[in-house]
UniProtKB/TrEMBL annotation:
This is p53 apoptosis effector related to PMP-22. The keyword Transmembrane helix applies. GO terms for biological process: apoptotic process; cell-cell adhesion. Gene3D superfamilies: 1.20.140.150.
Length: 196
């Protein structure tokens, strides 16, 4: 009986899989129009990372203005996008690292360090956006930061978790490579008399 724990070689694809999930959530955040939305009907305000749109209560057409006209809008988009690009690079490096038989543990720790850089860039973008948006864009009605903004934070949280695991993985080098024998624990000596 062999249990596949977190540091098991057969489970090595869990971390790249989580990075892939973070990439998917990052794509949703980058493409989604739900960074800010009206909280209740009538829905007169919505915004993405790239633009802010409003409409009248009876109007069906949205009137949009680009957030790239603002310095803070460019800064928020650039920092989140730079973090996302580094995340994609880390995903590719993780797939390469876990595909080769002789795993380079210093290489894995470097991926963890890059993931902390990704998290820093994404957090900067995710903090700049709501602070400056509420200061400089006139809001209509009750609004909330919505699902696409939430996907941005979810991606960042997954990246932080993966960064810790990538940095700590070299501490379990023998377990990951299968260089140690499993230890079995028995509840009483009567069940295993041959161990005496």
């Amino acid at each position: 009986m062999v249990v596949c724990g977190l540091a098991c070689w057969r489970c090595r694809w869990l971390l790249p899989l989580l990075l892939g999930l973070a990439i998917i959530m990052g794509i949703i955040a980058l493409a989604g129009r739900g960074w800010l939305e009206s909280e209740s009907a009538p829905y007169v305000q919505q915004a993405s990372l790239w633009e802010s749109c409003t409409r009248g209560e009876e109007d069906l057409n949205w009137s949009c203005e680009s957030l790239m006209d603002y310095g803070w809008g460019r800064a928020a988009a650039a920092t989140y996008l730079v973090g996302f690009v580094i995340l994609v690079i880390c995903f590719a490096l993780a797939v390469i690292a876990f595909s080769i038989e002789i795993l380079r543990f210093n290489f894995v720790r470097g991926i963890g360090g890059l993931l902390f850089v990704v998290a820093a860039f994404q957090i900067i973008g995710l903090v700049i956006y709501p602070v400056k948006f509420t200061e400089e864009i006139p809001l209509t009605g009750d609004n909330m930061f919505s699902w696409a903004y939430g996907f941005g934070w979810a991606s960042t949280v997954v990246v932080i978790g993966c960064a810790f695991f990538f940095c700590c993985l070299p501490n379990w080098e023998d377990e990951v490579l299968g260089n140690i024998k499993p230890t079995y624990y028995y509840s009483s000596p009567e069940r295993a008399p041959y161990l005496n």
